[in-house]
Amino acid sequence: MISKDLIGASAKPIILSILSKQESYGYEIIQQVKELSGGELEWKEGMLYPVLHRLNEQGIIESYWYAPKGKRKRKYYRLSTKGQVALKNEKHQWATVTKTLNKLWRITQCLT
Amino acid sequence: MFNLEKKIEAWRVDYLACGSFTTTDIAELETHLLSTIEEYKDKGLSDEDSFILAYNRIGNKDNLAEAFMTTNYRKVWLNRLVWILGGYLTFQIIYLFTTDLTRFTFLLNGKAHVAILEIIFYIALALYSIMVITTPFLIFSRSLQQWMGLRIAKPGPFLKNGLIILLTLPILSKTIEFFLFITGHISKFIWGWQGESLPHLIFIISYVGFINLLLKRRSPKIKTANV
CA-CA distance, B77 to B219, in Å (whole number)? Predict the structure, then answer.
């Protein structure tokens, strides 16, 4: 299980990364996260929407209502140009964190 | 017998009544709920079980309301503002009607009971005019219609807020008089002119802020991204 704080912190890069591949809606985003993390990342589903709305307000993502043929009308989200910059920034930050942790953990592994 | 559509309708009413969600928020959450219900039904679960599981997966309503308030803060506030100003105007109209009428009928025949009857008549007339003015809005705006329906279906919070507004109105009226008296004298003293509209406006704005404090206790700015 991933801690609540880490889930909150990783929400933005995960959402942006999913939306950078293709436009999507809340339910589908959650399904993808579940699948990709093997069920380890468990989001409180309704809580995704305030995060999406905030990103939308910041202009990082855009939203529109759309009904594909034979399916119900849903609110879709897609990455804006500002969002692509934000994603790049997030990627850099997360790469730095993981790189640091990996280095630290490799050292401890050698010692034991 | 479990009725899925009725359950979803009740869910929608429950969420809207809490006042922190806009109608678009509810529509979006509803598509999520329906998708989750479908997911369970495809696995062979009953309507009832699917609904309960989907309902739980969306999350606790109070927590959600708090999180949604961070982005809906302005909209919810505006909604309250409209109601407070509406209430203030209604009060002013009734107040003007009644005070002028009492004076008028007393002068005419000196009979108190006639005056009271006429006051009741004019209050009814004022309420009727408000109804006539607001009806077209109710007919044309679906969300407003839904909202009004909710006030009738779930009158608790509405009555509480209404009561707070009504109770503070006489205080407001007296304070305005006092405020105008003071500022009038100050402006007369400084500029030789007794202006009324500016202090009036300042007062209404500060009153709205005060009412907002009374109605809204939870701070919307604490929560950060929390999925």
Answer: 13
Nearest to B227 among A8, A72, A74 (CB): A8
Q: What is the arithmetic mean of pLDDT over B92-113?
A: 61
Query: Which chain A residues contact residue B59 at CB under 8 A?
Result: 44-47
**Would you state the structure tokens that stand for residue B183, as one six-digit string?**
């500022």
Sign of CA dihedral A55, A56, A62, A65: positive
Shortest CB distance from A53 goes to which of B59, B63, B71? B71
ipTM above 0.90, yes or no: no
User: What is the rounded distance in angstroms from the CA atom of residue B5 to the CA atom of residue B208?
Assistant: 39
Question: Domains in chain A, please, with CATH?
Answer: 4-111 (1.10.10.10)
B3 touches chain A (CB under 8 A): no
Predicted TM-score of the model (pTM): 0.61
Helices (H), chain A: 4-21, 26-36, 48-57, 81-111
